[in-house]
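Long-time lurker. I teach an intro course on protein structure, and each term I like to show students one example going from raw sequence to a predicted 3D structure in token notation. This year I'd like something fresh instead of my usual example. Would anyone be willing to generate the tokens for the chain below so I can use it in lecture? Attribution to the forum is fine with me.
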Amino acid sequence: MKKTTATFVLALGVLGAAAPALAQYTGPTPAAAAQAGTPAAAPYTGPSSVPVMTVKQLLETGKDDQHVRLQGRIVSHDGGKNYTFADDSGRMPVEISAKHFPPGQPVSAEQRVELVGEVDKDMRKMEFEVDQVRLIP
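-- Reply from a regular --
Happy to contribute to a lecture. Here you go:
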């Protein structure tokens, strides 16, 4: 048994030495790029198949795990990651992590935005978890 194990280990060592190494990413990390003054990759800004909905439509017909875009204003910060979003049809609570806001661009209650995210719906409540905040000029 020991001879078989030793042969197997030796064979792995030989194969490992002869086999090409797996490719690894060697470029800068986003944190390193930021420290070096290099901007991180910009988010995609082209067309999207994710539907634009109003708050009213989302509250009435939204389904769990549905991807949606909302256009309107973030009207208040309610603590932590909790905000209130409003459009012409109504208001709803949304959850936005600080990392999802556009870097270096303040967002006021008057600034029109597009929120891209996912519906989290259960028997008692519906939340909208934001993956990206885009400024609308």
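Some talking points for your students: Helices lie at 2-18, 30-36, 55-61. Confidence is low (pLDDT under 50) at residues 4-40.
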